[in-house]
Design goal:
Hexon Major Viral Coat Protein, domain 3, 13% helix, five-stranded antiparallel β-sheet, Jelly Rolls, six-stranded antiparallel β-sheet, globular, 7 helices, mainly beta, 37% strand
């Protein structure tokens, strides 16, 4: 039987409450839906300007939950940051020609006539205006959509959602309020969330409903959980250095958020603790707070239950080791050359760029593109139960008199980990429970 047939109808579900801080959708009781739910009409309206280049419309979603009454079934906190990362985990052509039309980001690349790397959405001015720019009316062409399986992974394991089993099923969204994570230009002007819709495919055939209820069994999945730690500001030490001197900053941090949990893949993202450092004249620099800032001669290791995870720390004088581990862990990572490095073939960023082909276009003053060094993610697999997790972090501080000392600033390290959970179904009592494995 075809999925879209007389046994199924797509339901457009209006929110039960909407404001500029949160939104809620409730599913109908005694109804069965396929798990491929989508949020549409997702985005902003207001003074014409471009969406965030990495997050696109996903930048609007700070936290999202799938709940049955007060029972949290699955959730993702700080979803916009994680979705910005997972936007990169596709083939270049898929991002350039398809996904960035749905998410309104600028991921996916082409080579222009000067043999420079340019975002696919920028191939023509009209395409960019239609695809990535908000307008005063909140026109359909300026809005995007989100498949909820991207941020609520249990939906990849459940074939259906049955509100006979989960009678108070709802999707809750908390909106991002920091404009710097929503749009590029943060000068005065409106940028308000548009009221979205939830699309859910409802199974209307009684026999098909019954067959799905009989097939429903226990489900194991990896939810994505978040923790945060910080690397101290190094500017006091760096400012005391001589012009040719450097200083090693070593930091050990205990991570408590995953204690007692069975953890699979992990990704870490580093950004300035002082969020004002992400903007210049109210315009975000690079991808602002949504990427992962490269650091000078950074070395990373983790201790798991008292043992070093890597024989040799990732990074240092071999930054390719970090990128290799990231790709081994997550597969495709769709970034341009040098996006994960400090510079394009030179030591310092703020001098003339000689190598200008096969890279992003140079910026004003013949400086390298601001996106260089914005995508230095740290990814690896643990595949173990965590009793004690520590981050062992080292970077090299350098003399710097610029307003933003990009290798000396205090850092927030956002840590996302896949954690094993289970949905246990008791068919006899028509009940279920959610627990950690």
């Amino acid at each position: 039987m075809a999925l879209y047939s007389g046994s199924l109808q797509s339901s457009l579900i209006d929110d039960t409450s909407f404001s500029q801080s949160k939104c809620e959708f409730r599913l109908q009781p005694d109804t069965m839906y396929y798990s491929n739910m989508r949020i549409v009409n997702l985005g902003l309206k207001g003074t014409p300007q471009f969406y965030h280049p990495l997050a696109g419309v996903y930048g609007a979603i700070k936290h999202i939950r799938l709940m049955d009454g007060r029972q949290v079934i699955d959730e993702m906190r700080f979803a916009n940051r994680y979705l910005s990362f997972t936007n990169l985990l596709n083939e270049n052509a898929y991002n350039r020609d398809y996904l960035n039309k749905l998410s309104k980001n600028e991921i996916g690349y082409d080579v222009n006539e000067q043999r420079q790397i340019v975002e696919g959405a920028n191939r023509s001015t009209n395409m960019k205006n239609d695809s990535n720019r908000i307008d005063n009316q909140g026109s359909k062409k300026t809005l995007g959509s989100l498949d909820l399986r991207k941020c609520l992974p249990i939906l990849n394991k459940l074939n259906v959602l049955d509100t006979e089993l989960m009678p108070n099923l709802k999707v809750e969204i908390e909106w991002e309020t920091d404009r710097r994570n929503l749009i590029i230009d943060n000068t005065a002007g409106d940028a308000v969330k548009v009221e979205p819709l939830l699309i859910a495919d409802e199974i209307t055939d009684d026999k098909l409903q019954e067959a799905n209820r009989k097939a429903l069994s226990n489900v194991v999945w990896n939810c994505v959980e978040h923790d945060l730690t910080q690397i101290p500001d190094g500017k006091v030490v760096a400012n005391a250095l001589g012009d040719a001197d450097v200083a090693i900053q070593s930091t050990d941090r205990k991570i408590n958020g995953f204690d007692g949990k069975l953890v699979s893949r992990v990704v870490m993202m580093k950004n300035y603790s002082d969020k004002t450092k992400n903007v210049d004249a109210n315009v975000i620099v690079g991808v602002g707070d949504m990427g992962s800032k490269v650091q000078h001669l950074e070395e990373v290791n983790v201790s798991i239950n008292g043992k070093k995870h890597f024989a040799n720390s990732l990074g240092g004088k071999n930054p390719a080791s970090k990128l290799r581990m990231l790709c081994e862990t997550f597969g495709n990572v769709n970034i341009a050359p040098f996006d994960n490095l400090q510079s394009v073939g030179i030591v310092q960023k703020n001098i003339n760029v000689n190598h200008q082909r096969g890279v992003r276009p140079v910026a004003a003053g013949n400086n390298q593109n601001a996106l260089v060094g914005n995508f230095d993610y740290i990814g690896f697999t643990i595949a173990n139960r965590i009793n004690d997790l520590q981050l062992n972090y080292q970077r090299t501080l350098v003399k710097d008199e610029l307003p933003v000392q990009k290798y000396n600033e205090g850092l927030n390290v956002d840590i996302y980990a896949e954690v094993s959970k289970a949905l246990i179904v008791d068919k006899a009592k028509n009940k279920y429970m959610v627990r950690y494995n």
